[in-house]
Amino acid sequence: MSWLSLAIALAAPSEAALRFGCSTLTIQRLDPLVEPGKVPSAHLHQIVGGNAFNASMSGDIGEQGTCTTCTFSEDFSNYWTAVMFFKHPNGTYKRVPIMQNTALPNGINGGMTVYYTQQDFNSNGNQKITSFKPGFRMVVGNPTSQKSGVPGLKFVCLENKGTRFPELNDFPKSPCRGGIMTVHHFPACWDGKNLDSPDHQSHMYNTVKEAFNPAGACPASHPVRVAQVAYETLWDTTQFNSMWPRDGSNPFVLSYSDSKGYGTHADYLFGWKGDSLQRAMDSSCMFQGCENGRPLKSQAVNNMNRCTVKTQVQEDIDGWLDAMPGQVNMKK
């Protein structure tokens, strides 16, 4: 039986939503989806998740990892986004530190918050949600985009770590008291056949609306409803507020030389072990209620922070830099 026919045959309601933290696994120029095998890749990423992460990745990742930086110890998936830099008026760059989300346990080392929701932020709904399959991967957004207002790809000017609105289409226009949050919502409609596509997007269909509002119905071309995956990454821009340019121009730039934010994007590579994600999607748990074996195994923050991978690209990413890694200095 095909995955598509199986999903239709099992079209019973399911009721689970996951929200969990993942500490930083590594920050380096690797991208096994868009630039497999290339060391270094074109621009810098923050990666979280399982330690099977490498320049090239294939097969069942859930069976390859030995540790993960995520709360759920059965999740060896990898989640990554571009890195944010501050550009000083003198033309040099400094990487912006990453903060943990206030809704997560204390002590998480940077990282991001990951969501797998079924209907919206508050309700599980009554649709059957099909787990991704081993080898599945996808990308949302396009670093070359010059278009503003892509649904699900947003910035938030934080008053504090709990701020969620308003969501902006590009970088904030003035200093933010609590930092900046980047938000990435992935499509939740799958064609039921392909684990990937040449552009890493066509096997998915996006019916996502703003924030965590319920996504629209899946079309016949992509009929399988999968979990709504989303990332929230909190950037501690506050240390740069006193250095904001006098002309009021935005001083922040994403690591592929994007000072507007239109090209914001994120990558996902499925790596849940065995049937763990499907078991979660079929359960009645919500958020932290899914931890401690109900139904998913979870781990302490110190174990999350202990997981790491080898640095393959030896370059300075932490000092004041004349140019971002892999990029030509952007002239004013």
What can you see in these coordinates?
The protein is mainly beta and 332 residues long. The protein is 6% helix and 23% strand. The chain is built from three helices and 18 strands. The chain has helices spanning 3-9, 276-281, 301-306; strands at 18-22, 24-28, 45-49, 78-82, 84-87, 93-95, 98-99, 112-117, 137-140, 153-158, 167-168, 179-185, 189-190, 204-205, 224-225, 228-235, 252-254, 266-269. The strands form four sheets. Strands 1, 7, 8, 10, 11, 12 and 16 form a seven-stranded antiparallel sheet that branches. A five-stranded antiparallel sheet has the order 2-3-4-18-9, with no helix packed on it. It has a three-stranded antiparallel sheet with strand order 6-5-17, with no helix packed on it. A hairpin with a 5-residue loop joins strand 5 (84-87) and strand 6 (93-95). The longest helix has 7 residues, at 3-9. The model is unreliable at 1-15 (pLDDT under 50).
